[in-house]
Amino acid sequence: MFRPKSEQVVEFKCIRGGNGEAEMRHITDSNAELYDKGRMFNHAILAPGVSIGEHYHEGDNELFYFLSGTGVYNNNGTMVRVNPGDTAICSSGEKHSLVNDGTEPLEFIALILF
Amino acid sequence: MFRPKSEQVVEFKCIRGGNGEAEMRHITDSNAELYDKGRMFNHAILAPGVSIGEHYHEGDNELFYFLSGTGVYNNNGTMVRVNPGDTAICSSGEKHSLVNDGTEPLEFIALILF
Fold it and tell me: With 0-12 CB in 10 A as exposed, 13-18 as middle and 19+ as buried, what is A17?
């Protein structure tokens, strides 16, 4: 299967009560494209000031891989500065959140597996 | 879990008989980090001229999401030009390969789920 960027689904939405709307570019369009092992695989972009609100994961885990920009990631209660090339994983039973406190877009890959 | 880029495992290796060595930056270090649903989640970089040889997938699927550069992707026998924002999925029973025929590094996210 090949899907060009021109056919990519893009959503802008408030996530988990965060500030503003995140841009979510869908890398996959269905669970089947994730071999029925995941429910989300996105290229996410937070403009400066945009955030994802704190939330828990139960029965799945979410991985973030940072591509560009900077921000502050809440790693199950501990705040860490994130930069390109960093990985963050919120395992089942843990919580996380993220804010772009920089001046450039904060871009990352987000994957949820269950 | 948080892992900064400074602790990221990076390999350079010939893949499936392709030309040259691909740079594979490991986003995850274990199957457990992929909720035991996958075995590889990499930020891959092919320098100009580097390729991944043709191979089949059986019992898993591999997703590529292109970040930068350009190349030619063998989509189960059909050659397609790839650019940033494109998605390619090699499902179980299909084959694929990839070559950077451009002048810039070809960067993409690669994920194998089983």
Answer: exposed
A63 contacts in chain B (CB < 8 Å) = 27-28, 33-34, 41
A45 contacts: CB under 8 Å, gap ≥ 6: A22, A23, A25, A105, A106, A107
- Single-letter code of the amino acid located at B100: N
Does A67 contact chain B (CB < 8 Å)?
A: yes
Please indicate if any CB of chain B lies within 8 Å of the CB of A58: no
pLDDT in tens, A70-97: 999 999 999 999 999 999 999 999 999 9
Backbone torsion region of residue A16, taken as left when φ is above 0, otherwise alpha when ψ lies between -120 and 50, otherwise beta: left
Q: What ipTM does this complex have?
A: 0.97
End-to-end CA gap in chain A:
23
What is the spatial distance between Cα B104 and Cα A97, in angstroms, rounded to a whole number? 35
CA B45, B86, B101, B104 torsion-angle sign: negative
Give contacts of A80 with chain B, Cβ < 8 Å. 2
pLDDT digits (tens, 9 = 90+) for B59-76: 999 999 999 999 999 999
Q: Is A64 helix (H, G, I), strand (E, B) or coil?
A: strand
